[in-house]
């Protein structure tokens, strides 16, 4: 999955939250009020080129919408982090979380139970 800038992620989040919008509507919700309409429009088209946003045409204008769900994006982003920083080892990620006490032993047991339950449901 292609990497997004922070501003691109903010725009994509607005599409997830608000649904399909014209750039004019998007500008109303976007936090950086100083951002020019044309710049925002260019950023949305860049998201479309990367495959994260799509559009439907209404005359001479386009209404844009998220082409990737938040869940799909989260999975892809997590996969990239694990690949880049943890040598593609989810075990290393979990070990770090346990070591840093961000994940308690009790949470880890619950996670293992959920994994086993999901595995049994697939069988």
TrEMBL record:
Belongs to the BlaI transcriptional regulatory family. Keywords: DNA-binding, Transcription, Transcription regulation. GO terms for biological process: negative regulation of DNA-templated transcription. Coiled coil: none annotated. The lineage of its organism: Bacteria, Pseudomonadati, Bacteroidota, Bacteroidia, Marinilabiliales. GO terms for molecular function: DNA binding. This is BlaI/MecI/CopY family transcriptional regulator. InterPro entries: BlaI_family (IPR005650), WH-like_DNA-bd_sf (IPR036388), WH_DNA-bd_sf (IPR036390).
């Amino acid at each position: 999955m292609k990497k997004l800038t922070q501003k691109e992620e903010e725009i994509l989040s607005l599409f997830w939250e608000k649904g399909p919008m014209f750039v004019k509507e998007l500008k109303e919700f976007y936090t950086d009020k100083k951002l020019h309409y044309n710049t925002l429009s260019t950023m949305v088209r860049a998201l479309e080129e990367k495959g994260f946003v799509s559009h439907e045409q209404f005359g001479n204008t386009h209404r844009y919408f998220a082409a990737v769900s938040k869940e799909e994006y989260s999975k892809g982003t997590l996969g990239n982090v694990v690949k880049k920083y943890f040598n593609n080892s989810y075990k290393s990620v979990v070990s770090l979380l346990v070591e840093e006490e961000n994940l308690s032993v009790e949470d880890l047991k619950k996670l293992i139970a959920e994994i086993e339950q999901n595995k049994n449901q697939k069988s």
